Amino acid sequence: MLTKLAHRLAQTIKCEVELVKYHAQPTIPVRYFSDVKNWGDLLNIDVIEYMTQKKVIHCAMGHRLHILGIGSVLAAANSKSVVWGSGFISEQQQLQQKPHRICSVRGPLTRAKLLEQGVHCPKVFGDPALLLPEIYPLKPPAKTKYRLGLIPHYEHATHPWITSALNNEGVTLIDIQQSDSPTFIRQLLECDCIASSSLHGLIASDAYHIPNCRLIFNEMRSFKFDDYYAGVGITDYPSIHMDNDSQLSIEELIKTCTVKQLDFDVTKLKDAFPRELFS
Q1: Which of 180, 181, 255, 262 is CA-nearest to residue 212?
Q2: Helices (H), 178-239
Q3: Which keywords has UniProt assigned to this entry (predicted)?
Q4: Which among 140, 138, 136, 164 is positioned nearest to 150, based on CA atoms?
Q5: What three-state secondary structure class fits 81?
Q6: Would the pTM of this model clear 0.70, i.e. be above it?
């Protein structure tokens, strides 16, 4: 506990040092999960710098007014949080403190939980990662390299089925624990289909119109997935439950992947961004 507290204190000091260091250029404090390197959380940098044309400074402790953006981080909100696109990770989570403002959330399941707590939340949905094609307008190669790309959540990277599946020709692993978005997206576009247990592996696939399906390992929570999909008008999406002795073939998995038709108002999400609070 003390080690974690010391780590957070060090991050707070780093935030203040960076704000001073970059005083000559516009900056914006953003709070996101950083205990483990994860591309989905690091997308906050890409997306919010695109939205503001300001340098993102990681405000780990939320000690000053900050954006709370991409990720299942809403339960960590405090009175200085300005929420744009965040969500809860499970049905059991609740706010511990009322945010400074809620501009949008990931989906209607998160909004319903906020309303249950008597917290105002506008009906503006969508994970901000869906803006990726605007930020990185990359196109698929003339000929893809792989039939299937696997994007396991970092907790599932060494699962026996993943290890075994990678022995198949035309199957590749896309590492979610990387920070270079153009590289990640190019790897994504090299695949005919994507199977992912990472939410942002699925969201990125949806954004670039790549057929995909969700892999469910062990007792994974579904709340954040259901929340995201409900926010883009999808109530039924392909999922496959995996276990250590799964006999699922690559052919069966590929047949399960689909392109989603998203009902998503990108202008509404962008207009909800609280520029006036960070001008």
Answers
A1: 255
A2: 181-189, 199-207, 223-231
A3: Transferase
A4: 164
A5: strand
A6: yes
Indicate whether 115 pLDDT > 80.
yes
Instruction: Decide if 56 contacts 28 (C-beta within 8 A).
Output: yes
Domain spans, the chain: 2-126+266-278, 133-256
Q: Tell me, which fold does domain 133-256 have in CATH?
A: Rossmann fold (3.40.50)
Residue 133 tokens, joined: 């094609």
* Cα gap 243→76, rounded to integer Å: 32
Both ends of the chain: CA-CA distance in Å?
36
Query: What phi and psi, each to the nearest 5 degrees, are found at residue 129?
Result: -65, -15
Q: What are the tens digits of pLDDT across the range 236-251? A: 999 998 875 567 899 9
DSSP state of 123: S
Q: Determine contact, residues 192/254, Cβ cutoff 8 Å.
A: yes
How many residues are present in the chain?
Answer: 279
The answer to whether the Cα torsion of 229, 153, 92, 83 is positive or negative is negative
